[in-house]
């Protein structure tokens, strides 16, 4: 099983780069490593295919909603510690307690006999 390469590393761009940066890097690298331009060697063909796959992978990803600052603020809000939750009485505990009370009453009744 082969592990896919990080498309950002293949294209030589930072993670989270804009679509324009992705396209520019793809065009520059595609020109540089195109097999017709560099002779049809196995290395140039393989490198060109890596570049194409990385570009297609990044293009197929949905665009993030909001700016990086907005996304960071949402993540920080999600990670903030939550206060203690209000707990109500659990119905299963109430049922068990009432069963125990009933058994105690039955035991008391049997003891009187």
UniProtKB/TrEMBL annotation:
Residue ranges constituting the J domain according to the UniProt record: 6-63
Family annotation (Pfam families): DnaJ
InterPro entries from the UniProt entry: DjlA_DnaK_co-chaperone (IPR050817), DnaJ_domain (IPR001623), J_dom_sf (IPR036869)
Listed transmembrane segments: none
Full protein name: DnaJ-like protein
Organism: Solirubrobacter pauli
Lineage: Bacteria, Bacillati, Actinomycetota, Thermoleophilia, Solirubrobacterales
């Amino acid at each position: 099983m082969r592990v896919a390469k990080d498309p950002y590393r293949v294209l030589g761009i930072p993670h989270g780069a804009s679509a324009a940066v992705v396209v520019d890097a793809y065009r520059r690298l595609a020109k540089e490593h195109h097999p017709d331009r560099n002779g049809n060697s196995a290395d140039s063909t393989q490198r060109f295919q890596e570049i194409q796959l990385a570009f297609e992978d990044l293009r197929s990803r949905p665009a993030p909603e909001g700016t990086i600052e907005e996304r960071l603020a949402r993540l920080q809000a999600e990670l903030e510690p939550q206060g203690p939750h209000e707990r109500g009485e659990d119905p299963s505990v109430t049922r068990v307690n009432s069963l125990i009370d009933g058994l105690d009453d039955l035991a008391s009744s049997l003891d009187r006999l």
